[in-house]
Amino acid sequence: MIIASCQDSPESSSVHFEKGSFGHDLQFLLQHDSVIVLTSEDEQAQVIVSPKYQAKVFTSTATGANGSSFGWIHYKAFTEAPDPHMNAYGGENRFWLGPEGGPYSLYFAPGTPMTFDNWHTPAPIDSEAWSLTQQSKHAVHLQKEMQLVNYAGTSLSLRADRSITLLEADTIRRLLGLIPDTSVKAVGYRTDNAITNTGTNAWNEKTGMPCIWMLDMFNPSEQAVILIPYDSNAVKAGEKIANTGYFGEIDPARIKYHKGVVCFRADGKSRGKMGIVPGKAKPLAGSYDAMKKILTITFFDLDRNGKYLNQEWKTEVLPFSGDAVNAYNDGPLADGSQMGPFYEIESVSPAAFLQPGAKISHQHTVLHFTGPEQFLDAIVKRLFGLSIQEIPSFQ
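User: That's the sequence. What structure does it adopt?
Assistant: Structure tokens below.
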């Protein structure tokens, strides 16, 4: 029994795992990092966390080492020379700070044009290791001290705290509001994220301030569709439901609005980003891959009356006109190059108006389900109010 268990372990380099499996990705990551694996009692639900790579959740599985690896990992980034703009290692949940653009941007030096040549991800969320402060079989806590300068020229001293907790089956059922069929396999984890103003000056509209930004990177497919619900009652006649012009207007053939849900194609073949402002958003997003029978759900904190930072690469934007939830589909750039393919689901906190010593928190939970479509359908109906058959196929 012990020998068989050791032989089947992903940590063993003598065991072959198919690309796309959790075991394959764990073996790959262990070549570059001493990652932490949070594991359920039956070892079917597992989550990989990395202090070295900015406290990322790299990937997870609901069915053990041979099961699907749900996160997107950018394998070649681990051996390439450091990128001055962004070291895109991937990961199905990463901690970032916003705003990316606008008058309080953390990604552009003061006074520089907001173009790609001048865009640089702050090192503490891009290339520097975080400190592991607590660890158990089911949870970890990580921390990072940061010194940043924003576009307004303000020096920001802050501490980021981040906990990742593997969720028990009962907790997942409570989040869903139903008990899935026993044939449905699940993995879920909650991330609790906070930033504290460790400086001596308050963060306000004159100095600028950051926000917490969570980004989930997943593997695309021809039949993957992102699902972003919105409050139909908050949409005025003739008003746009979603912001769809981040990287040029999204092709209308790739985005549909049905029964209070934005359905956005996630095939990794056309670059586009959309978002919904807090007054129209709901604290829920997800995706469904009909090809692989994978349902992904995210829950996150939402303040519908909060001030959310605009992250567009423009200096003249209203700084507090930003989105609370976003989705991104990767695709080729104008020169034909492409980082992915992958797609992202994102949530952000309101702007952190903080006095010295004060903190703001943002919780973001990720769930994955795999199993027969008829039983996954019950979850989709419960959370989104439409059936899997009603999700546009985009074929």
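The chain has four helices and 18 strands.
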